């Protein structure tokens, strides 16, 4: 039996399989439909985090094209092929890879995860100098290639690097966003949900400030099924059987567990990846699908933190409304307890110190 020597002998040509065209075309129809604008997402840094983000975005049917960029050519090509081989189980997406940032041209969204990560016990802020040097190469090239894009920064320390990306890109602050405490808030909601034996999706709770050791848990923001937890705690303190569930010491234990989460996972498996993958994919969805959802993400907080001079440029997480144009608004008038306000000020002062010292 003669073997087909190429796909064209099987009926495929550059325009697609002719036998399918034959079945679907009618007179006067050339097969072209008005096309919607295609969505292109680039992920710079195809390590644990970049690949978790790319793979989660793939499952969401959000992008038409995903570009993976990494400094290591074989690694990024291997990651691309591995994802491409899942094509039969996923919506159709063009996946491209390479080492050149220019491949990201005309992206709608550019996600930066390239850079050093923590070794067990190391703080995020310790990575700063190494990752700033890398950002000096990556960010101007990415901004030039996609001047209309939204930049989402994930590399750590994410708040300071989001500030760096804002400075180096020349983009308006509304289009430079750090993944910030979107992840910490999910950890917070998970732990509260476990404690209260409810679904994390029914827990409203925010961590704000630094994505790091000085992050602030907003007790006043916690509600479960519409019930404000702090108000309940104050009203029923130790007076009802359920009050123990909302005990302040237990909540402080949860806050400490949130702050310690990344350290614990890094000690156990060397890095964190799945949760940040979902966190950034949810941010990408809200942005590109213009969802107007509120995410605690790292935004330019100049003048937005009470007690911090209004001229101090720094990025930290506050609840922000995200849509196609980027950050559409920031919850600047948070109702905070005195303690929450004090902690947020410390977080802001800490981050401003690092941003200011860079002299950008
Ligand atoms: N914001 C957050 O919530 C989180 C942030 N991270 C941070 O994300 C970053 C990445 O972490 P992992 O993926 O675990 O590290 P990784 O080491 O697995 O991946 C980093 C990748 O960046 C690549 N890279 C280095 N220089 C590059 C360049 N000039 N251009 C393109 N690619 C380059 C490396 O080749 C490597 O593949 C770290 O800074 C980590 O701390 C990690 C988890 C959560
Ligand atoms: C590594 C890191 O920033 C995190 O998982 O929170």
From TrEMBL:
Residues 181-351 form the Lactate/malate dehydrogenase C-terminal domain. Tetramer that arise from random association of LDH-A and LDH-B. It catalyses: (S)-lactate + NAD(+) = pyruvate + NADH + H(+). Keywords: NAD, Oxidoreductase. The keyword Oxidoreductase applies. It comes from the Eukaryota. NAD(+) binds at residues 45-50, 70, 131, 154-156. Pathway: Fermentation; pyruvate fermentation to lactate; (S)-lactate from pyruvate: step 1/1. This is L-lactate dehydrogenase. CDD domains: LDH_1. The keyword NAD applies. Residues 39-178 form the Lactate/malate dehydrogenase N-terminal domain. The active site is at 211 (proton acceptor). GO terms for biological process: lactate metabolic process; pyruvate catabolic process. One of its GO terms (cellular component) is cytoplasm. It comes from Oryza sativa subsp. japonica (Rice). Belongs to the LDH/MDH superfamily. LDH family. Pfam families: Ldh_1_C, Ldh_1_N. Its EC number is 1.1.1.27. GO terms for molecular function: L-lactate dehydrogenase (NAD+) activity.
């Amino acid at each position: 039996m003669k073997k087909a020597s190429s796909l064209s002998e099987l009926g495929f040509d550059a325009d697609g399989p002719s036998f399918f065209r034959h079945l679907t075309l009618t007179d006067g129809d050339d097969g072209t439909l008005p096309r919607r604008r295609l969505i292109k997402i680039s992920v710079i840094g195809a390590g644990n985090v970049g690949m978790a983000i790319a793979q989660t975005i793939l499952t969401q049917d959000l992008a038409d094209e995903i570009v993976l960029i990494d400094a290591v050519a074989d690694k990024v090509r291997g990651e691309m092929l591995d994802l491409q081989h899942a094509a039969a189980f996923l919506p159709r997406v063009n996946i491209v890879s390479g080492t050149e940032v220019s491949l990201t041209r005309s992206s709608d969204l550019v996600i930066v995860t390239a850079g050093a990560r923590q070794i067990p016990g190391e703080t995020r802020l310790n990575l700063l100098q190494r990752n700033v040097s890398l950002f000096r190469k990556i960010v101007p090239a990415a901004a030039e290639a996609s001047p209309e894009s939204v930049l989402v920064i994930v590399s750590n320390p994410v708040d300071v690097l989001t500030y760096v990306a804002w400075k180096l890109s020349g983009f308006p602050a509304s289009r430079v966003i750090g993944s910030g405490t979107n992840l910490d808030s999910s950890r917070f909601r998970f732990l509260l949900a476990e404690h209260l034996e409810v679904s994390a999706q029914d827990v409203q709770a925010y961590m704000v400030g630094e994505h790091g050791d000085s992050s602030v848990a907003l007790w006043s923001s916690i509600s479960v099924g519409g019930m404000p937890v702090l108000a309940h705690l104050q009203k029923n303190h130790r007076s009802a059987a359920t009050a123990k569930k909302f005990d302040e010491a237990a909540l402080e234990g949860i806050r400490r567990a949130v702050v310690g989460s990344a350290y614990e996972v890094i000690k156990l498996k060397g890095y964190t990846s799945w949760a940040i993958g979902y966190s950034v994919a949810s941010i990408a969805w809200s942005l590109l699908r213009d969802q107007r959802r509120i995410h605690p993400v790292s935004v330019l907080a100049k003048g937005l933190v009470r007690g911090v001079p209004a001229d101090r440029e720094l990025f930290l997480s506050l609840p922000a409304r995200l849509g196609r144009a980027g950050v559409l608004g920031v919850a600047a008038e948070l109702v905070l307890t005195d303690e929450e306000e004090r902690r947020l000020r410390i977080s802001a002062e800490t981050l401003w110190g690092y941003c200011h010292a860079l002299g950008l």
